[in-house]
Structure formats: structure tokens, C-alpha cells
Amino acid sequence: MESGIDRLIQSVKEELQISYAFSDRCCIYKVPERLRELNEKAYTPRLVSIGPIHHCNDKLKAMEDHKRMYLQEFIARTKVSVEGFIELIKEKETRLRNCYEETNWFSSENFIKMILMDAVFVIMFLLKYNCRKSTEFRGSRDSIFYPPYKWFDVRVDICLLENQLPFFILEELCGLSTILGNSPKPTLIELTHWFFSNEWGSWAVGEYWGKIDFSEVKHLVDFLTIYHRPTEQQQHEELEVLTAPSVKELHQAGVKFVLSSSKNLLDIKFDRNKGRLEFPRLQLEDGT
């Protein structure tokens, strides 16, 4: 007769068989609680969930109907069947799951369906946003770009770290489509660049974006991260910094502030010999 210790051993072995190893591909995860508790709203989507982290949020369920509308339109405009899109995502399921911190509570069926719905929504939103002067991509039913103009909240939601999809699946789904007909079809990199530069101006993505390698971009937030990497990696000895001094304190200590010609926000240089702190201009507007 099986003892209690035998059942415990068997239970642990079964759990070890189904557990997921930590993945070095993980790039989409929850914001640390020490940041979230300072301002919950800054990290939580207002209108639409993208990906698994906020998928079960009841406050965001209303946009699921809009996702279905976009999927219908996406399929109608492409030469790819639902089966073709699902098969593609199924082939990439393990890679997709590895991009997230946790997806264990999703069955394979629900996970694939969520990725398809959310990915198509993001692609269609970027297309409609960038082609907003064309009535071809905007139907009268679309409340995102017509009253009550939900695009204002959507554009913020798709830029939240917890609300991301792996960029590669967006590229592959976009690449399968013929959604722009015979006209030159923009790449997802171009659609993303146009979105950021039109919505937030040169401080987000400026004029020299074409010189940057985006081949390894992980998601939309990572797109901005790659763009704003310092153009020059400076090597300095490690210094112990207890607290960051304020601008007033630096000025009182004799530091001179110099405006840089660079448009990259992280191109900040400090000349210790001359006491010069050089940094680019940040233009603050209502939408910033």
C-alpha cells in the first residue's frame, strides 16, 4: 500500500515534469511592485489588453469585440485564411511563451487565439493610424478613429511594457498579408517608426532612425529603447554614487550645462576636466 511519503515523492516528480524553465528570451513581464505602487495608473492599460498579463482584466473586455472586427477586416483584406494564421502561431508557440514571464495558466488553444486577436489588432491599429487620411482603412463603425475617438487611449496602452507582443510575430503576420494591395507595402518597422514620430515627435524617433539596426527588436517598447541607446559607449571607472545631485546643486558646484546638438535623449556627456555636462533638448508639450 502506498505511503504518504511515496505519494509526496510522486507528486513532486509530476510537478517537475510540467514546470517551465526560466527562459533567456523573456522580455515582457510585470513592472516591479516598487515602481507600480508609486503610480498604478502609469503601468496599467486603460482601454485594451495586449498579451497575457492583463488579458483577464474585466475592465478591458469591451475591446474584445473591436479586436474581432479588426480580425474580420484583416482576413478580408488578405489572401491568408484563419487556418494559415493559426498554424503560423502554433509553430511559434514555445518561442512566444518564452518571451513572457508567465503563461502557464493559458491552454494552448486560448494562448494561440489571444496572440492572433491581439497581434492583428496592433497591426490594424498601426495601419489605420498611419493611413488616417485615407478613408480606405477607416470604416464608419470604427469608434477608435471616429467618435468617441478611443485612439488617444489605445496609443498609450500599446506602449506599456506589460501590454506587449513579441515583435517577431507581428512582423511575420504582417509579412503574410497583402493588406495594402499593389502599393508598396511598408514594413512593420516603418509603420512603428511613423507611429512614434507622428505621435510624439522627434524626441521619440528622429530623423536618423534609418541608420539603426532594428533586426533584434523585441517589442514596441524595445523599439524606443534601441533608438535611444547612446551613440557612443563611454567607459569610465566605477564611482560610488549615494544620491544623484539636483541641477541646482550641480550648478552651485560649478558645473556648466551645455546644449547638445544630438537628438538622442541618452547622449549625455560629462567632461570631468572642464566641468561640462552636455545633454540634448527635451521638448515638453501637452501630449508628452
UniProtKB/TrEMBL annotation:
It holds the Pfam family DUF247. InterPro entries: DUF247_pln (IPR004158). It comes from the Eukaryota. This is Uncharacterized protein. It comes from Populus trichocarpa (Western balsam poplar). The lineage of its organism: Eukaryota, Viridiplantae, Streptophyta, Embryophyta, Tracheophyta.
